[in-house]
From TrEMBL:
Domain Transposase Tc1-like: 7-79
InterPro entries hit by this protein: RNaseH_sf, Tc1-like_DDE_dom, Transposase_5, Transposase_Tc1-like
Alphabetized Pfam families for the sequence: DDE_3, HTH_Tnp_Tc3_2
GO molecular function: DNA binding
Record's protein name: Transposable element Tcb2 transposase
Top-rank taxon: Eukaryota
Organism: Stegodyphus mimosarum
PANTHER family named in the record: SI:DKEY-77F5.3, TRANSPOSABLE ELEMENT-RELATED
One GO biological process term: DNA transposition
Amino acid sequence: MTTASEDRYLASTARRNRKATAPQLSSELAAATGTVTSWQTIYRRLNEKGIYARKLRVCVLLSLQKKRDRFNWCKEHQNWTEHQWSRVLFTDESRVSLTGDSKRVYIWRESGTRNDPSNIVERDRFGSGGVMVWGGIMIDGRTPLHVFSSGSVTGQIYRDEVLDPYVRLFRGAYGPDFLFMDDNARPHRANLVDEFLESEDIKRIPWPPNSPDLNPIENLWDYLGRAIARIHPPPRDVNALKTALLEEWRLIPQTVVNNVISSLKTRCDM
């Protein structure tokens, strides 16, 4: 049991050090008051104070012009129907490391404070190392997960390993209303990529710069990362990691895919 003053101490400490873990808070409480508590009690007491463990939000730097572009894109697409979104193949690359997902950091925060500056960390680019994968999702469909042959992606690799074997086939199966979404990464905007898309009559949906949070496939990368983290024993080498990624991607329920795409209206309203 904890006293009311100890509960206030816990809440104050969690607000000062939002990245502290429950065991760390328990240790600090014991050092300050002599009261020994379990981490479960720490969670309960903080929850009673309206403070919860939530994933730290990661953002990217946006200039004023990029903010305008993002606003205009959301305004243009906020009333799109599910049928309109069903035409889009949402794609992206992601890095996966043998050492786990370093971006999965949790903090203590109150409800409704997700976008407070103290609860956000800025990110401008990928870290180094790990396996690079690519995937695409649609309502009622997805591509196989592709593991790149090298750790980096160039325009030629993107065309030869992604666009030709996957995107071109999806365009052929869906028909002329098909829309292809990729972000504004340099390899995606190479001249040879543009030429390939034009030759195959693959239409792109314009995408605002530095807006990964608008892309529903980002939720799938998180889902995939959590699935890999649950594997025991964990993958010990790159080949084992590749095998696990391919299998866990295949096992993601299509309802999960459909739900994250259906969330686009909410994303556009933000």
